Amino acid sequence: MNLIPLPAFSDNYLWLLQHEGHALVVDPGDATPVHQWLQDQQLHLDCILVTHHHPDHTGGVSSLQAAYGAQVHGPALETLPFEFQAMNESDELTWRGLTFKVIAVPGHTAGHIAYWAQVPDQAPILFCGDTLFSGGCGRLFEGSPAQMLNSLDRLAQLPSDTRVCCAHEYTLSNLKFALAVEPANQALQAYNQHCSALRQAGRPTLPSSISTEAAINPFLRSREKAVEQAVKHFAGSACGQSEVEVFAHLRQWKNEFK
Ligand code: ZN
Ligand code: FE
Question: For the domain 2-171+205-217, what is the CATH code?
Answer without folding.
Answer: 3.60.15.10
